[in-house]
## 1
Amino acid sequence: MATRIRPSYELPGVSFHQGDLCDKQALLPALKDVSLVFHCASPAPASDDRGLFERVNIQGTRTVIQACIETGVQKLVLTSSASVVFEGTDIKNGREDLPYAKKPIDYYTETKILQEKLVLEACDKQKGFLTVAIRPHGIFGPRDPQLVPILVDTARRGKMKFIIGDGTNLVDFTFVENVVHGHILAAERLAPDSPICGKPYHITNDEPIRFWDFMSEVLVGLGYAAPRYHLPYTLVYGLALLLWLLALILRPLVSFKPTFTPMRVALAGTHHYYSCDRAKEDMGYKPVVSLKEGIARTVQSYPHLRQGA
């Protein structure tokens, strides 16, 4: 998949290479004389293009691993996701020893599971190729093109008035700098005698918050009203499932994409937060930015999305 780097992201001393993630011949020159690779590429979770997910997350990851081995890369750190163990039901303080989801909630989760397995199974201390997977959850931060813009667009269309369920479900959100911090710690600790080799690690803000409180803080911070009317979770999930099935049936004839998919309803209405104890013990992980500060900095980065802007 070709990557487009906007000019504003160009940095002195940083070389940008554009190419297809699945094209090993394009990757080999970029990995020449490189000892460490952070593999962060993935389509946006909301996409419904299964072929794209399989191409990038599975085929692309296989190619990255092959290219790393052929060029002598010593360390590969994968950006995985805590969703690899999520099936749409409650997870409270989940640890890394939870089994992979047998019924993934979407194509993103399905292919991230396979991607993580590929990377962790490729770890080979004897050959000097070490791997680790970082599992963030609910990444947010300044200028992110997904979470806040989508939330504001929904609010502007008058569709952020309702809370799914009783509103007490706790969820992990992770400020982007904490995600980066976790990746760097993993890269620094990755060594033949390290316990982190070939393992996954949850990286979050370690401050579970009510899902709807987080959404309300962002919306109110940008001048929009917080959602306040409650809808039964089972009712909304059932309707979302019905619409999703209808969209599948009509896909050959009509392009119909429901706003609320079963996956989005599950993410909004269930508990899903994770333990960072393993990362604390093995890597010395500790969030560097609090949830409160992260939300404030995120809101400040979107002056153009404020109410009335």
## 2
Amino acid sequence: MFSDYSNLTNLDNMRIQFTLRATSSSHKYKSISRLAVLCLLGILQCSVAWGAKEKTNVLFILTDDQAYDTVHAHGNNRIATPNIDSLAKQGMSFTHVFNQGSWSGAVCSPSRRMINTGRHLYQTGRGPEKLDSKTVANIKLMGETFKENGYQTFMTGKWHMSEQDWERSFDQGKSIFMHGMAHLHKGGQFNTEFVDYTPSSSAKEKFPAFKASKHSSEVIADAAVDFLTSEKSKPFMMYVGFLAPHDPRQAPQAYMGKYPGDSIELPKSFAPSHPFNQGDYYIRDEILENNPRTPYVIQKAIGEYYAMIEHTDAQIGRIIEALKASGELDNTLIVFTSDHGLAVGRHGLLGKQNQYDHSVRAPFIMQGPNVPKGKSVPGMFYLNSVFPTVVDMVGIEIPESVQAPSVRPLVKGDKDKVFDSIYGSYRHFQRMLRTDDYKLIYYPMLKKTQLFNVAEDPDELINLANLPEQQSRIENMMAKLEDWKKVVNDPLDNDNVIESYKTLSTGVNDSNKRPKAWPALP
């Protein structure tokens, strides 16, 4: 029967067959009815599969400690980042995107909590803040939201959050790094300990550990490429978290050799030491090199930093090529950013525990369906907008627990920035307010203020805070800073610093001790 009726091509033939069917035996009628039902089910299945296929995939790439100005396309002619440059050319760049701050010396961890919850610094639910249990229970995670909306979620690389949060977020994972950084005594970047994810009732069996035998960035890219070349029945959301360019600063010699220290130009804001103890001046990041720093020490450190970034860029290129080979490039939203920046010798600092632009500002590039090509706008938003933006761009409803805004209106061209001012925070030591033109940094423990005209002095070299004509500006900016503190639930009271900040579980203890060889700072 199937062969008799499978090639009907016009209405007349269909009428003939229906007439024949009406006069045929009941057995034949039932057979055709079953055939019709099966055909209908097949059509429905195809429709469902097509609908799933049409959903936009997401590839989220997050580097570690990569400052905004370490991308060739952003004006740094000393570094080669061809693959990140290509993302910028084929997509949209946002030039002023900031990490909101940290309640910990390990700035990477709070940044990731904000990215994955879409919430403000003191309201992420797993930090030191004391939120009620109902609020914490209702906080959605980015990967979890994609899972709940029919996506296959995959993660590789640095997570730096809990295993429980990882399992809420991802179906699959390979070469996952749960910790904060690679350590030289544990293998450094070339023998990093990763874990794979295997569903199991035993916590130890769920995340079996293994030592990689190649650079961490290559291991992570391998895992991402393997996922992209595998069979997938659903749209996917990929989270790729590189450990680089966080120290230890190691890259293959082919890359290290491109950036010898004596070929590196010192940054304009280079200084042997910071002029005062900005808080946590003796933290791990700051004692990686002796203080005062010599020019060559910083040139060498920058060269190593650049080598790691170019090597990571090459791994990003491998991932993009695999995405292209899979046929899914045109149907994938790609977001590239970093958790924050890094000083590397600027202002006499090495780490990110400060409020200068080199440490709080990150690159942010988006490429994919409905994203303009080659466009650049200020942005003026925080990294916690990653979550609401990616779900909004692919048509998923933003969860109620998310506090940060989607930047989709910027992508559509409705405006070019989200906020008129940006807030920043580092423990109880620093608070910051930045506008398009000016930046104020306040040090509550020291009662000290810095004011920079960032429009004319982007390297933040000239402190205007003591000029009489700037006092009204400082007062206005301090008032805006207090407004922001209310928005983000910042507990710090400038007049009662220690007691007010003790409301956080991190407390105010400074465990960093000055090395004997270092000079004491005011």
## 3
Amino acid sequence: TEVSYEAIAPVVMDALIATEDIRFKQHGGIDYTSMGRVLVRSILMGDESSGGGSTITQQLAKNLYPRKRYWVASMLLNKMREMITAIRLENIYTKEEIITMYLNTVSFADQTFGIETAAKRFFSVSAAKLKTDQAALLVGMLKATHSYNPRLFPERALARRNVVIGQMQKYQFLDSLKADSLKRLPLSLQYSKTLTQAPLAPYFKEYLRTTLQQWFNEHPNEEGETYNIYTDGLKIYTTLDSRLQRYAEKAVVQQMTEVQKQFLAHWGQDGIFKSNPAIADDAIKRTTRYQRLKEEGLSEEDIIKELSKKIPTRLFSWRGDKEVLMSPIDSVKHHLQFLNAGLLAVDPRNGNVVAWVGGIDHEFFQYDHVRESTKRQVGSIFKPIVYATAVEQGIDPCELIPANRETYIDKEGEEWSPRNSQVDYEVKYTMRGAMAYSVNTVAVKTILKAGVENTIKLARDMGIVSELPDVPSISLGSASVSLMEMTTAFTTFATGGERVMPVLITSIVDQDGNVFKAMTPEEPRKKVLSDKASAITNAMLRTVVTEGTASRLRWRYGVYDMEVGGKTGTTQSNADGWFMAVSPQLVVGTWVGADDPRIRFRNTELGQGASTALPITGYFLNQLVNDKDFKSIAEAKFPALEPDWKDMLDCDLYELDSTLIRRIEVMAFERDSLLTADTTAKADESFLEQLYNRKKRMFRQQEKRDSIARADLIKIIESENESDDN
């Protein structure tokens, strides 16, 4: 927000001139008195951060026309360019106009641009109402916006503010009495979160910024200069859909607010740190403040003592950020306990990224859980790739595979015996049933039959570039892969076997209207899976939603009519929860977990992907299906299965042996009263009880369908009889 000279408090000008350019009103753009210092420190010594000699006008020139990289003597050439520009600015504008332009274009901490925005961000007042101590704080952070960020480093920012006040006293903008009283004042921030929340898709924008910067470094202009994405007048058109992005962000907030309540209730106050003190200790040692004190030579005891002192601190909370007095150690513990999330939504028809949520709050948690560099164990969401490989290798999807446990010997000679989340080892599953109920033992047997190397090859072809160990345990998701890679891989199941790479930018246009070469992937589409294997795997994924571990997507989140398949995933000790959703026009990947994998639910019922990640997708899709503007996405259908492929899936999900059937019959006799009761499986039911109730619901549904069919048949017969009579 730009403001006029009159709309800026005079104390801001005083603080700026006293600190940055005391001869501002006398020189003509260049302060020759300071020129020698600039020549020695900046040019000859190559110290670009030395400052001190550049006038406000020269700094304005730098803001308006950022420095360029030359083949030789870049510092000298840039300085000369800024000096020439500064002289021209002085010839065109008044001193008031120059200092106003500078204050409107300079950047402050927390990606805040301009004095008006900074005043509102840090003190919730306009620039016209800034007090002297507030003006000194803002001017002080110009030396290094991150290092002197009062929200992150209050002690450092306070010291820098007092340096500015000292400069104002030195040059008689303040008397000594006033300066001393101002130095004793606390920071007293009135930080406004509203400004931070306003931008849409902050994680996406940051990823875009780094990606674009790298791309422009590799594609300079005709003069060999690197484009500046902020000042060169570029128009960048992205694939993001603002409405879907808002739906995605709202879904993350809605679910994570609830999950966090459950997590804190599950562990109790600081329970996770009492259980494992190393979690907090390790995090504290990674902080900048700890590292700085260590470099200063303080002992471990003195460092902990210093970090235990309470200071003004701003905390993230789902009820709203708050300013409190808290020690840095307690602040670290507070933020460590928050579970985070990631969501990526891609249009499989063209690879367009339509929604990207990298975390719960970009200001406090800047680690992006979508981008390729963020890798976590994927759990059972890897299983569809195993079963797709099996179909591709000619294995019959209706083949019954025993779920019994077996012991395997790994390459190191160690024994390994995978187990299932439910005690269903006496059941035989088809592929569709094993996928629907996420049966680990069957997945391992399937990958051994289909081939570990074949499975890895397909995963690579589907877009997974992360390391995939050549071991059977990858069938259970032991590999660490990014959310972006997994979402890319799942586009294969929505497109008839074509892997579609994600696209973020549609075009870039320079200020002259010239369109840059499109930033599209080298191989945007690639056929990696046969039509048959893709269609059959797609059908199995839909069974997961209609009858399996993701069935709550329909009955709890109201996604009834949308044709969607999915797969839940949970990693070792519930450290990661995943859910992948596949529909004809939208593929959605969701992850939930803590930044430190040691921070997790101890209970699988709470920590599984179906409980943590799936609801985010549920809330997201619920908003979509109720928005008429997205009717085409909600009502899109997959192509019907070819008759031969449909026959390949014409089998039960599982089969029980005679002994188990007899046990269920006995249970049915003993629990006959349940026939008229609500038989929804409870969390504390045994597997046999759940299986009994599941079978009973299926029988009831079949009886209802048979009843409807009989009624329809009677109507048809009656209608035909009436026709004969006529």
## 4
Amino acid sequence: MEKYVTTSDGVKIYYKIEGEGPVLLLLHGNSQSSSIFKRLIKRLKTHYRCISIDTRGHGKSIFNGKKLSFDRLMQDALEVMEAESLQQVNLLGFSDGANIAMLLASCYPQRIHKLILNSGNTTYSGLYLPVRLTIKVLPVFSQLIYKNSPAFNLLLDDALPNIHKLQNITAPTLVLNSQFDVVKTAHAREIAKNIPHSQLLIIPWGSHLTFYFRPNNFSKLVCDFLEGAVNPVD
């Protein structure tokens, strides 16, 4: 089922609902859309009611010309929850979606039942050098290549979640990173250390897009964690 919610500042946010069961809210990464979760949701929807959002300025959601911020994207996710009368959800965020998820879970801990953070970061030093360099030189090329994309400006300009506020998160949390991720393993470990009830799992031979290229393995990790059967690997 495809739906829209009009937010408190008048922007239409697109989201899709698939499957039945406990709710799993999914937040995609920068310059993507909810469609990137298609292969994963195909495997999860037999167990969960999957709600995937196109974040503001992405996919089918509207961009109103104002600067994107993680705070605003978090508020949009909350307003989707309100539209569906959801007091509490399981939440899975990937990359920038994980950053939004960290912010939501730390500001509204009572709204999150279980939390999965896949390749999130709280500082740009948590990314490997080639990725940081790409972000640094991006403004030079953005006008020609990305036409000053608001999503890329979010990468460049907006403050990331404060790692010390992660201590406010009360939900059991699975921090996922891959062996060949763009996020440093040490940084993923630091995130896990700052979340009280967290587990860290490093996926062997995985990449930044493990959930996309290995959906069977990844969906099993998600289901095992939500059902209480994941062992940490650090």
